[in-house]
């Protein structure tokens, strides 16, 4: 039988050690591995990825954190409504790709001896960088 207590105990064990196995949880709580897996997937809405339990959607702990953060933002708004919007900052991310700018030398692959057709290689991809761009108000008061 699945009780709120068992669900809470499993959730706490996972939060303490994200790498914990369903077998270990089952042994500690004295329930079957299948029951543990069912609770993790159905009630806690988590899956195991790279040997760690992660939420598929917001779990109860994350929902509480979102509520707490939202209450803090609302409190900031209530304290100083005039300044609140001027303090907001937005952010976006994009991947910037790097390429090797060297090209092959001309080859004699067509054209005439007097006017050969150049044959340049496609630039090779050498890496990428994540760029984070932050935008805020110019009226942002100094701290």
Q: What is the element layout, followed by pairings?
A:
Elements: H1 4-16, H2 22-29, H3 33-43, E1 46-49, E2 52-55, H4 60-79, H5 81-84, E3 89-99, E4 125-136
Antiparallel strand pairs: 1-2, 3-4
Helix pairs in contact: 2-3
In short, what is this structure?
The chain has 143 residues and is of the alpha+beta class.
Structure description:
The chain has five helices and four strands. With 143 residues, the protein is an alpha+beta fold. The chain folds into two domains: 55 residues, Arc Repressor Mutant, subunit A (Orthogonal Bundle); 56 residues, no CATH class. The protein has a two-stranded antiparallel sheet with strand order 1-2. A two-stranded antiparallel sheet has the order 3-4. A hairpin with a 2-residue loop joins β1 and β2.
Defining key terms:
143 residues, alpha+beta, Arc Repressor Mutant, subunit A, 2 domains, two-stranded antiparallel sheet, two-stranded antiparallel ribbon, 5 helices, 4 strands, flat
